[in-house]
TrEMBL record:
InterPro entries: EGF (IPR000742), EGF-like_Ca-bd_dom (IPR001881), EGF-type_Asp/Asn_hydroxyl_site (IPR000152). This is EGF-like domain-containing protein. Residues 1-28, 30-67, 78-114 form the EGF-like domain. One of its GO terms (biological process) is Notch signaling pathway. It holds the Pfam family EGF. One of its GO terms (molecular function) is Notch binding. Disulfide bonds join C18-C27, C57-C66, C104-C113. It comes from the Eukaryota. The keyword NADP does not apply. It comes from Pristionchus fissidentatus. Transmembrane segments: none annotated. CDD domains: EGF_CA. Keywords: Disulfide bond, EGF-like domain, Glycoprotein, Repeat, Signal.
Length: 114
């Protein structure tokens, strides 16, 4: 048994009890948690030491698997969907990491294009 696995005698054969992070009949394969694509919302999986993984989340997302939106981004999206006008005079609401900004049309300016 490789990689620290423990050999157990069985009738006429043997079995390997593998340590965490290895697998296979002889414990020779390192587990790759990234092969199942665990990161959501465009996150990038980073293989961890021996076992495990972490996700590098895109702007606006957080959590072990990038499963949660930043609260402010979530609120902005909900308000926009419900017809709340965050940007006035035809301005367009643009999500930024942890906040938003208004993209104003020509002739308007300010935080909310008023």
């Amino acid at each position: 048994c490789k990689n620290g696995g423990t050999c157990v005698n069985t009738m006429g054969s043997y079995k390997c009890n593998c340590v965490l992070g290895t697998e296979g009949n002889d414990c020779s394969r390192r587990m790759n948690k990234c092969s199942s694509y665990p990161c959501l919302n465009g996150g990038t999986c980073i293989k961890g030491f021996i076992f495990g993984y972490s996700c590098d989340c895109p702007p606006g997302y957080t959590g072990k698997q990038c499963q949660s939106e930043w609260m402010l981004d979530y609120i902005i999206r909900l308000l926009t969907q419900k017809g709340q006008i965050l940007c006035k005079n035809g301005g367009t609401c643009v999500n930024t990491p942890g906040s938003y900004k208004c993209s104003c049309i020509l002739g308007t300016e300010g935080d909310d294009c008023s």
